Amino acid sequence: MSATAIARKDFEDAVRSRMVWSVMGVFVFLMALVAVSAATDDLSGTEPTEIIVTVTNIGGLLFVPIVALLVGYMAIVGERESGSLRLLFGLSHGRRDVFVGKFASRLGVIALATLLVGAIAVGTGLALFDTVPLGTFLAYAGLTVLLGMAFTAIAVGVSGIATSRMQAMAGAIGSYVVFTLVWHPIVAGVHYLLEGSLPGLEAPEWYFLLLRLNPLEAYLQVSSELAGQFIWGIVGMQGIVEDVPEESLQEPDALMLSNRVGGELPFYLQDWFAVVVLAVWIAVPLLVGYWRFVRADLN
Amino acid sequence: MTAIETTGLTKRYGEQTALEDLSLTVESGEVFGFLGPNGAGKTTTIDLLLDFVRPTDGSATVLGYDAHAETDAVRDRVGILPDGFDLWERSSGYRHLEFALESKEGTESPDALLERVGLDRDDAERPVGDYSKGMRQRLAMAMAVVGDPDLLILDEPSGGLDPHGIRTFREIIREEAADGTTVFFSSHVLGQVAAVCDRVAILDDGELVTVDTIEGLRERSGVGSRLIVDTPNTGLDATILTGIDGVTDVTADGDQVRISYANPAVKAPVIHRLVESGVSVLDFEIEEATLEDLFAAFTGSDGDPSRNRPEATAETERVGTPAIDGGAAAPEAVERDAEVGR
């Protein structure tokens, strides 16, 4: 009850944030550019799922995490720093109400943003192609919502732990940098230490497991499966920290997970496990953030 | 029943002590002043009462509930006007009141609340991002009294308020108190506290200095009233007056001489002595002791460097005044000040 009141109040404020809408505007503009340029091409040899590739890159790997972190990182520490948390306490709300209400509200904003991403994907598909594999697109939209939830959880969790705006900002930016720039080189480094070489085209199963514990990588791999083709991340780490033959880099579908692991995929490399990874990235940051927040001195 | 009871309440941040061994009882229905300079530990105490921070040692109950273990019950019955807060800039004044009414399950009408704190309905339609500090303070006060709390905690409520707003707040405090609400009024502005409070606690540097009624404090501190004499003669030799029994302090400042006394009967001898010494007395007036004087006497701190610390008249009256100067230091201080005045 109390958390609902906070969530509703906070959602009103959050959706009125100009920053969120300008970031969304930039995304819609980018997608429009891509759609217009695609519309002028000959699309006879192209599958509608190509759209997933584009949306994954601009929407999933860039837009959704950044909006989620932007929307979420001030959720709690902002109230704490400004003193309005005392006001909330005076209005009979407790720490749990604040944390739950804030997360729910920010999640609502992200769900809106992610559904926008999904709607744009479907809309572009309908505009450019006669038929669209709706099931695949819905699964993709659901996956993207999960990704949005994970980054909202990370941002709100960080916001619950941070004692100042700067700390929260550092945590939010830091987490994105780690997932996009640091994670893959570190895992490749672990491979180098254990195996004495950088991972090649074929690599041990645990290597791919460590990679997909990164929520962005988990998302990317499932997106690839849904699109039926390999999707490059924002930084093509395969060409940098992996020892993959040049011709494979030219023929990226060779980099699909199923082509890089010999034999049948173990359960933890199947698609559903990536969904579990995303779910863990929702639960763990929230629990840690909550655990720290309810025990903290809040002044 | 007690509204607030703290037992050995202590809060340390590393080496820093914010509050040391605070034992305090506020009775139900009281208007209780919590007085101290900035950084004395007032807000820390309030934070501890609301489970905003956790004590290093000791405990507190609010309205009979444990401040930590039963904080939900505490928060449901308490209204707070915090010191230094942001409102939700993009929401209107009305939306803030709606939120407060919903949160506290209050039945007041928003317009009645606005009227109580002196806010216009037109202003309440606007987003609070446009509000002045005083308007924010009024809106927050309206939110604090929603749902008729049993305990109203006000932390530096007069910040940003004009005199009219201060009067409005005073009225609200009196109305709430008449209604049976306990008011815990924290301030560093002593006149504010004296105007409404039944009892006052003085906090300094994290420690409780004393608790008493305003009159009790006046008596115990030995701070007397002052006689202010207008004279064209500058460079007065203060010692001609300090010799009079009952005069506690003499300060010459330009064409004014301020004589503090503990015994009202010394006024005539003082004027007489001045005239006798060839000092012409143009006019004189009597200034009642202010709470500032009391405060200085009890904490040894003095916000106004042009003024001497009031000196206690007898050793027994200086109980709980650790930092006050001994009597021997007083004449020197007088001389120093007299020189400054020249």
TrEMBL record, chain A:
Residues passing through the membrane, by range: 20-39, 51-76, 103-126, 138-161, 173-194, 272-293
Keyword Nucleus: no
Pfam families noted in UniProt: ABC2_membrane_2
GO CC annotations on file: plasma membrane
Keywords: Membrane, Transmembrane, Transmembrane helix
GO molecular-function term, one example from the UniProt record: ABC-type transporter activity
Protein name: ABC-2 type transporter
TrEMBL record, chain B:
Entry keyword Transport: yes
Record keywords, A-Z: ATP-binding, Nucleotide-binding, Transport
InterPro entries: AAA+_ATPase, ABC_transporter-like_ATP-bd, ABC_transporter-like_CS, DrrA1/2-like_C, P-loop_NTPase
Span of domain ABC transporter: 4-230
Domain of life: Archaea
SUPFAM superfamilies reported for this sequence: P-loop containing nucleoside triphosphate hydrolases (SSF52540)
One Pfam family this sequence matches: ABC_tran
Gene Ontology terms for molecular function: ATP binding; ATP hydrolysis activity
Disordered: annotated span: 298-342
Basic and acidic residues bias: start-end ranges: 304-318, 333-342
Keyword match ATP-binding: yes
Protein family membership: Belongs to the ABC transporter superfamily.
Protein name stated in the entry: ABC transporter
Taxonomic placement: Archaea, Methanobacteriati, Methanobacteriota, Stenosarchaea group, Halobacteria
